[in-house]
Design brief:
Blueprint: H1 10-26, E1 33-36, H2 39-47, E2 53-56, E3 60-63, E4 68-69, E5 78-80, E6 85-88, E7 98-103, E8 109-111, E9 114-116, E10 120-125, E11 131-134, E12 137-139, E13 143-148, E14 152-155, E15 158-160, E16 165-168, E17 176-178, E18 181-182, E19 201-202, E20 209-219, E21 225-229, E22 238-245, E23 254-263, E24 266-276, E25 278-284, E26 293-300, E27 310-317, E28 324-330, E29 338-345, E30 355-364, E31 370-380, E32 386-394, E33 398-407, E34 411-419, E35 434-441, E36 448-453, E37 458-460, E38 464-470, E39 475-482, E40 488-489, E41 495-497, E42 504-514, E43 519-528, E44 534-537, E45 542-544, E46 549-558, E47 563-572, E48 575-580, E49 582-584, E50 589-596, E51 599-609, E52 614-616, E53 620-625, E54 632-633, E55 636-638, E56 641-643, E57 646-648, E58 651-653, E59 656-658, E60 661-663, E61 666-668, E62 671-673, E63 676-678, E64 681-683, E65 686-688, E66 691-693, E67 696-698, E68 701-703, E69 706-708, E70 711-714, E71 717-719, E72 722-723, E73 726-729, E74 732-735, E75 738-739, H3 740-788, E76 794-797, E77 806-810, ...
Parallel strand pairs: 1-2, 2-5, 3-6, 4-7, 5-8, 6-9, 7-10, 8-11, 9-12, 10-13, 11-14, 12-15, 13-16, 14-17, 15-18, 37-43, 45-53, 54-57, 55-58, 56-59, 57-60, 58-61, 59-62, 60-63, 61-64, 62-65, 63-66, 64-67, 65-68, 66-69, 67-70, 68-71, 69-72, 70-73, 71-74, 72-75
Antiparallel strand pairs: 19-20, 20-98, 21-22, 22-23, 23-24, 25-26, 26-27, 27-28, 29-30, 30-33, 31-32, 31-34, 34-35, 36-38, 38-41, 39-40, 39-42, 42-43, 44-46, 46-50, 47-48, 47-51, 49-50, 51-52, 51-53, 76-77, 77-78, 78-79, 80-81, 81-82, 82-83, 84-85, 85-86, 86-87, 88-89, 89-90, 90-91, 92-93, 93-94, 94-95, ...
Length: 1114
């Protein structure tokens, strides 16, 4: 489907046609309109002198060779395709065909044509002057419009996606035009424009800005990084890319570096080089020859073959953009070289379980100190292993020792030590980091035999004898004999039964042998007792009591070993009870007692000895009699004992009532036990095991009782009592008492409380979880950021003011290399105190003494080294914080003439000051952030801190994945915040803008795009955004690229074409599925940023103007 023909030259075209028409009338000639539908027919009509206007009324498809091929009489004519296409059958590799070819033809108009598939779209040469080319779409040719020795007017044409160039001429003479759309303009310029007025791709105008693409280049490989730099200093920046490909775990792979020249919108590769490893690079005139050199750092870290690790710096010298390697620095030769020189043991003839000290000796044969070198010891044995780790600082060319404690294990032990196993320290030689030793430990210890149960010399009856037989190495055989009746084998578990042994004394002997041939034996004694105790017991036949009596029982019990337990079983009132008997030393008998009541009794004594033998006595029978009362009605009873009676309409004072029934009776100051009462009143009494119905309880103790019906309770005390449907006034529950309605209320309250508590707990848990999650995310983010962040660094600067630039880089330490004048770079200094992996290095004058310091961050520390002359640097200060330091920035933040050091960690944002002798913190802002930038946004002379962070909102779901914010669990929110400086090192948040969703951001840029005196914030990430100030520190999103820029990998903000305006350079990536696999293609695009205004060309349609500053809901 063809694109729409754009009508921007409509007024101009109509004007030209009117002039031609008037000229024809004035000359007495009438314009004849002819039609054609093929190339041959169109050539015939254009050649006829009578056809002043030739209209193409049908598209021409798949034409071979040129179509309109310079008809002889093609002068003073209008050729109007009327939106129809002239389509070739493919670009002619010889470059001979054209859609429309004119040579020495004048005063023609070519318009409204769609020309595709030729080598030249329109080809005009040899004095073909005063021709009008307007409102055509010329695309997918090799060259769109070609002109040589011709003057033409070219207006409102869409000339895009032509492979070599859109406009092509070595000299356009006085040709001119406007409102054209192209990317590859060559030296063509629209009126008051450089190149065409519009680019072939322009994004939709969204809320104030749109992007117009000026360069688009696809590359059939995966580009990992991109930079922009004017290497040849011609005012036009080159684009430099690196492509890294790792082949396998035991090969670092190669990185390719390429330089592209911007040739009028085409990126032309002018140089490339391939080197082993992963690379970072920079540019500088390092040898003062007024030409830029390329300085490249190449790192190759191989996990499986560490001796292949390489760390090199290359310097490429510029010779008319043909770079030649002039210097190669091998950083490994300046590294430590750690090797073992010995392994010693604290004794010889080592036996099993000996405590041994293993000493490892390590030499650093390199020229740099090794700080925090990881030393590991492994002892491998079939029985037990040892693994231990320690850390050492080993000076250059020095030896160190470290000791490990080991409990020796029998058998063959493989012992090996390893230093820097995780390759945290780059070394000269990575293959000499291990030491091995084999050690055989003997076993001279016999097995160990113990009697676990019972104890030695115990009296037993049918017990299992349990033995513990152990050995340091292993038990081989065990035998035993009882009273020397012959040896038998004993297997694990080591139990010997005694159930078949009769009463008497026994000796048992155990002999055990271990697998090393060591032998041990042990003898134990025990006595078997299977005879039960003897029990003699008797009672009188009759016992008389008044109400009750304490009846004593005496029994004679004897045993050969020891009596363990004696008790009596008492049969009374169809029930059986037990009482224990205790030994009475005075009488020599076992004695017990129970409270007797009137009735018939039968008693038996049962005795058990210590070995579980049981015996019992004969049953003794007897009876107990007592006095019983009768029914009492309408009476007053005082200080009496009442048992098994019935009281009605009476009053009881200071009495004891048991096993009775009360009805309409008042009880005061009495003890009531096992009584049932109805319609009665109890006051200042004690009720035990009673039931009361429809009664009143006043200041009365209730024990193990049950109150039913309409019970009124006034200040009662509950002990194991239950009240049903009672009314409680000022009572107290001492022990396990309860009122059933209260129980129900408690259950309801508990359920309600649980639900409320659950909701409250959920909120509290979410809040706590958010805080914990933020901290964990900070740690993880810090670790990931450290790995993919600035890395080792590569800086070119004259730190010692000798007019020679040094190369500053980092490996285990910071290194400085200086040019000797012959492009040989000599190491003049390295640090020796940094004990962690270096994440960032910078240079700056942090203390305002006029000298550049080297600033390095390593995990949670910042080191500052100052040049002291004679090619040496001194560590003048160090700072230690909490958490990994990221985003190290040095700048004068508050315009006081002194440089501050800014960074972030898991605790927030910190600002340090270097006073020349130490670093001190002067300000901080407690808030976790994901990245930092600084800039003077409002031109007040003080720099603001700009940060971004991503937070999860509304933790209310089970599935809360990091990249699926909003999936049934709230959502993610990305915040852009601005911290303002009050001038006194106090920072407060003056602005924040939130965008819903997870936004990946890897860069921010700041520029006053609309010239209002306040900079916009340009955000580069997986999308491109522009935040514009609305005043009062409020920023609104005025551009959002959406998906229009592709799968973005990186965005730069640079002046690519030297027009004093910065463009955005976009590196994007496409994944194309072909031949059952995915192929990666990278794309480099350059876009100009434009304010919305007027009608402008879009790739697909015309877009209306949006006024600057207009607010939109989106």
């Amino acid at each position: 489907m063809s694109r729409k023909i754009y009508k921007f030259g409509k007024i101009l075209t109509i004007s030209v046609l009117c002039l031609i028409f008037l000229a024809m009338i004035m000359g007495g000639v009438y314009a004849d309109v002819c039609n054609c539908s093929s190339c041959g027919e169109c050539n015939e009509k254009l050649n006829e002198t009578s056809c002043s206007v030739v209209n193409l009324n049908a598209s021409i498809i798949n034409q071979t060779g040129s179509c309109i091929n310079n008809p002889v009489n093609f002068n003073n004519k209008i050729f109007d395709c009327q939106g129809n296409a002239i389509n070739g059958n493919g670009v002619d590799e010889w470059g001979t065909d054209a859609g429309i070819y004119l040579s020495d033809k004048q005063n023609n108009t070519i318009k409204n044509c769609i020309i595709t598939g030729f080598y030249h779209g329109i080809y005009i040469i040899n004095n073909s002057n005063f021709n009008q080319i307007s409102n055509n779409e010329i695309s997918n040719n090799a060259i769109g419009i070609f002109s040589n020795a011709a003057d033409s007017t070219i207006n409102s044409n869409y000339v895009c996606e032509n492979t070599q160039s859109d406009f092509n001429s070595s000299e356009w003479l006085s040709s001119s035009g406007d409102n054209n759309t192209c990317d590859k303009a060559g030296i063509w310029n629209d009126t008051n424009k450089k190149g065409c007025a519009h680019t072939c791709y322009e994004t939709e105008c969204k809320f104030g800005f749109y992007l117009s693409r000026t360069i688009s280049e696809e590359v059939d490989s995966e580009i990992s990084d991109i930079q922009v730099y004017d290497i040849d200093m011609d005012g036009i920046s080159e684009i430099i890319t690196t492509t890294a490909r790792y082949i396998s775990w035991d090969s670092c792979g190669n990185s390719t570096m390429k330089i592209f020249k911007n040739n009028y919108g085409n990126l032309v590769e002018i140089w490339n080089t391939t080197m082993n490893g992963n690379i970072v690079f920079t540019f500088s005139d390092i040898d003062n020859d007024n030409k830029s050199e390329i300085i490249v750092r190449s790192d190759c870290s191989n996990y499986y073959n560490r001796d292949n690790n390489r760390y090199k710096i290359y310097v490429f010298d510029d010779s008319t953009l043909n770079f030649t390697k002039i210097t190669e620095i091998d950083l490994k030769i300046y590294a430590p070289d750690l090797l073992f020189t010995g392994i010693n043991f604290s004794k010889t003839n080592i036996s099993h379980n000996d405590n041994i000290t293993i000493t490892l000796k390590i030499l650093n044969n390199g020229s740099t100190n090794a700080v925090n070198a990881r030393v590991e010891l492994n002892v491998m044995n079939n029985l037990k292993n040892l693994y231990a780790v320690t850390y050492l600082n080993i000076s250059a060319y020095a030896e160190a020792t470290t000791e490990f404690n080991w409990t020796a294990t029998f058998g063959k032990n493989e012992i090996y030590g390893e230093i820097d196993r995780m390759n945290e320290i780059a070394e000269i030689n990575e293959s000499n980091n291990k030491i091995y030793a084999n050690l055989t430990v003997i076993d001279s210890n016999p097995p160990h035999i113990v009697l676990i149960s019972p104890a030695n010399n115990s009296i037993i009856n049918g017990n299992l004898l349990e033995f513990g037989i152990t050995d340091d190495v292993g038990v081989d055989t065990v035998r035993f004999t009882i009273n020397n009746w012959g040896f038998k084998n004993l297997s694990y578990p080591y139990y010997i039964p005694t159930t078949t042994l009769s009463s008497g004394k026994y000796n048992i002997t155990i002999i055990a042998n271990d697998t090393s041939g060591n032998s041990a034996y042990a003898t134990f004694s025990f006595t078997v007792d299977s005879t039960p105790p003897t029990v003699i017991f008797s009672m009188l036949e009759h016992i008389r009591i008044n109400e009750s009596a304490n009846i004593e029982i005496f029994a004679d019990v004897d045993d050969d070993s020891a009596v363990k337990d004696v008790y009596a079983e008492i049969y009374f009132d169809a029930q059986i009870s037990q009482i224990s008997l205790n030994y009475d030393e005075r009488s020599g008998k076992w004695k017990g007692n129970f409270e007797g009541k009137a009735g018939y009794y039968a008693i038996k004594i049962i005795a058990t000895d210590a070995l579980g033998n049981i015996n019992d006595s004969e049953i003794e029978e007897f009876d107990v009699s007592k006095i019983l009362n009768s029914t009492v009605e309408n009476s007053l009873v005082i200080a009496s004992i009442i048992e098994n009676s019935e009281l009605k309409n009476s009053e009881i004072i200071a009495s004891v009532v048991k096993d009775s029934f009360l009805n309409y009776t008042n009880i005061n100051l009495s003890e009531i036990e096992t009584v049932s009462a109805e319609n009665s009143k109890f006051e200042s009494s004690i009720l035990f095991r009673c039931n009361a119905i429809n009664s009143t309880i006043i200041r009365t103790d209730l024990k193990s009782s049950r109150m039913l019906g309409n019970v009124l309770l006034v200040e009662p005390t509950f002990v194991n009592a239950t009240i049903i449907d009672g009314v409680l006034l000022n009572g107290s529950i001492i022990d396990n008492g309860a009122i059933q309605p209260a129980n129900a209320g408690a259950k309801i309250g508990a359920k309600a409380g649980a639900k409320v508590g659950s909701k409250v707990g959920a909120k509290i848990g979410a809040s706590i979880g958010a805080k914990i999650g933020a901290k964990i995310g900070a740690c993880i983010g810090a670790k990931i950021g450290a790995k993919i962040g600035p890395g080792t660094g590569l800086i070119i600067a004259d730190t010692d003011k000798d007019n020679k630039k040094e190369i500053i880089t980092a490996m285990n330490q910071v290194y400085v290399f200086e040019n000797d004048g012959n492009n040989n770079f000599i190491k003049i200094w390295n640090s020796n105190t940094i004990g962690e992996s270096i994440s960032e290095i910078l240079i700056n004058d942090t203390d305002n003494d006029g000298n550049l310091e080297i600033i390095a961050s390593a995990y949670n520390k910042i080191y500052i080294f100052e040049n002291t002359g004679d090619n040496t640097y001194a560590e003048i200060s160090a700072y230690s914080g909490i958490g990994r330091i990221s985003n190290l920035i040095v700048d004068d933040l508050n315009n006081d003439g002194k440089k501050e050091i800014l960074f972030r960690n898991s605790e927030g944002i910190h600002i340090l000051e270097n006073n020349g002798s130490k670093i001190s913190e002067i300000a901080n802002y407690t808030s976790y952030t994901d990245n930092l930038w600084i800039d003077d946004l409002n031109n007040d002379g003080k720099k603001e801190i700009i940060y971004y962070k991503t937070s999860r909102i509304n933790y209310v779901c089970r599935y809360d994945y990091y990249y699926s914010c909003g999936y049934n669990c709230g959502y993610c929110e990305t915040t852009i915040g601005i911290l303002g400086n009050d001038g006194d090192n106090h920072y407060n948040e003056v602005s924040n803008t939130s965008m819903q969703g997870y936004v990946w951001i890897n860069g921010m840029f700041f520029d006053d795009l609309n010239n209002d005196g306040i900079k916009e914030i340009l955000i580069a990430g997986d999308k491109f955004y522009i935040l514009e100030s609305r005043g009062n520190n409020f920023y609104a999103k005025t551009y959002d690229s959406g998906n229009e820029l592709g799968n973005i990998q990186k965005i730069l903000f640079e002046d690519v074409d030297n027009d004093s305006k910065k463009e955005i350079v976009v590196l994007s990536r496409d994944y194309i599925y072909a031949n059952y696999s995915y192929q990666i293609k990278s794309k480099i695009s350059v876009y100009e940023i434009n304010e919305c205004g007027g009608i402008f060309v879009s790739k697909t349609t015309e877009k209306p103007k949006y006024l600057w500053g207009e607010e939109f809901n989106y």
